[in-house]
Prior knowledge:
Order of helices and strands: HEEEEEEEEEE
Distance between the termini: 79 Å
Number of domains: 2
Amino acid sequence: MPQHDRLAGTSGGVGLSLLSVTLLETLMQRISGTLLAILAVGACAASTVALAENPAGFYIGAGVGYSTVRSDDPAYGLPGYFNDHQTAWKAIVGVRPISPIGAEVEYIDFGQPSHQFSFNSANFYGFDSHPRAGALFGVGYLPLPVPFFDVFGKAGVARLETDVTTTTSNCPPSTTCTAPVTFSRHNQTDNRFAYGVGVQSKAWGFAFRAEYERINSQFGDPDALTVSATWAF
Length: 233
């Protein structure tokens, strides 16, 4: 009989322990769910307050990143073909009057690479390129159920300015170069198709985004991968 009582007591203790663990797990799940709900409500409240104070969704921002400047046309210089990586920067002004649609005006500078070439220890040529553009974009946002995160795409027209300077000196092979150095500058401005995609996280009027943008050009498409911060007010 005493042994039976001890076994019964042990079984009861194990059952009580399992019950405690189950209750603790349930409590933790409810706490986690409550915290997530509070965060979501807080983000919604922040978005609602920002929208009430700024119904047009007006914002400004700036960014910096990594660009690729291309030359795919012999008119760019001698020989006229290169890909170079530079530091890009941009300024942004935008509106988002309704959640799925917005518009942006942007100025982006893709940087200015420079190349020098020589042969026969005498002849040399070189060129630098400096593409930059003002652009107008229509922006579309995916209808995600998360109020503080956006995935977006944009397309529009860019006023692309391409400024190329070419330096040339022609000398006969195996001779000392005495020919004067010549400089030529090629500047062209065109309206070109521009597009991009990106993601952003936002709260309390601020947004931090990462995006890729590219502009079509007959001389070679400049593009940039940038990170930016914007402020809605």
